[in-house]
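Contributing new records

If you add data, match the layout below exactly. Sequence lines come first and carry their own label; structure lines follow with theirs. Keep one chain per record. Anything else will be rejected by the validation script.
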Amino acid sequence: MSVELTETAARRVLAQLARRGKGLGLRVGVKKSGCSGYAYTLDYADEAGADDAVFSSHGASVVVRRDDLAMLDGLTVDFQRDGLNEAFKFRNPNVKAECGCGESFAV
């Protein structure tokens, strides 16, 4: 099982943690939502619990609940800027379909 950050995403996570003044890494998860079934959730993790898996990429950590790993295994998280917009982007090999707006997915 693995979840990775690109170098750009890792730099963003480390910068945000430095700005917050605390934190272990980026917490990535899934929730039931949207027209395709699931949506990604993002937050900053201050610690990892017994039900979490922690992955490291380019000096930054990603924390994932073990219950979400089946849907997120192989996920690569990138950070992209396009003009004034900036966001984390997801490349998930488990996704079978995405909604038209790109906010939800099916596995």
